[in-house]
Design brief:
about 220 residues; mainly alpha; Lysozyme
Length: about 220
């Protein structure tokens, strides 16, 4: 069993393993204006580590309560606590950095890869957020293998979804369709929005706690 798992990891890293539930393989390569390409490249190139920064103690405690709640929900899919913690911390950081809801990003990951780091679609889309390799060429360093790196994959995915939201003037339904390469069709956006509900979280401070400001936006 260990030998088989090791072989799967090697094949996945080489882009040769296809997971049946990977879904973003129809994502389309579109021409980008030079200004857009430059902006997206800059967003990807900023390699600040995903370390949350908080305005005060209550903001930090609010994040820890979110982390605990999400960890409990994710445990059946990602068993090891260190991996769960790192994934959730990175989702929280990268989603907020891109101006997205963490629940939306978690819902998209659930639909795209079911939280499998080495998921590969039949068209070659890679990792948690099923990023197509052409994005590494368009706005990255050209190394499609780096899309299996957790932070790189989540940063690309969040920046791409933010780009599609901007293209669609904030219309989430249409932006999700673009992400999947099925713009204007309902099955994929409906699936992501349904999955998002599983990750919704409303923080309720402990009794006696004084509500503080929300964690600051980590955008550069």
């Amino acid at each position: 069993m260990q030998r088989r798992a090791g072989l799967q990891a090697v094949l996945a890293a080489a882009g040769l393993l296809v997971w049946p539930q990977a879904r973003a393989g129809r994502q389309l390569e579109e021409p980008l204006a030079d200004s857009v390409r430059t902006a997206l490249s800059a967003a990807i190139a900023n390699t600040a580590p995903p370390v949350p920064v908080f305005a005060d103690t209550e903001a930090r405690l609010a994040y820890l309560r979110w982390l605990g709640a999400m960890s409990e929900r994710l445990q059946k899919r990602v068993h090891a606590w260190p991996e769960r913690r790192d994934l959730l911390q990175t989702v929280w950081y990268e989603s907020r950095r891109a101006g997205l809801e963490p629940a939306l990003v978690l819902g998209l990951i659930q639909v795209e890869s079911n939280f499998r780091k080495f998921a590969v679609s039949s068209a070659g889309a890679r990792g948690y957020m099923q990023v197509m390799p052409f994005w590494a060429r368009l706005i990255g360093n050209g190394d499609a293998g780096s899309l299996f790196h957790m932070q790189t994959n989540l940063r690309f995915g969040c920046v791409i979804l933010r780009h599609y939201l901007d293209r669609e003037r904030g219309n989430l339904f249409m932006a999700l369709g673009r992400y999947n390469g099925s713009r204007g069709k309902s099955p994929y956006p409906d699936a992501v929005l349904a999955a998002r509900k599983q990750w919704d979280y409303r923080d309720v401070p402990p009794r006696g706690a004084v509500p503080g400001p929300q964690p600051p936006d980590a955008s550069p």
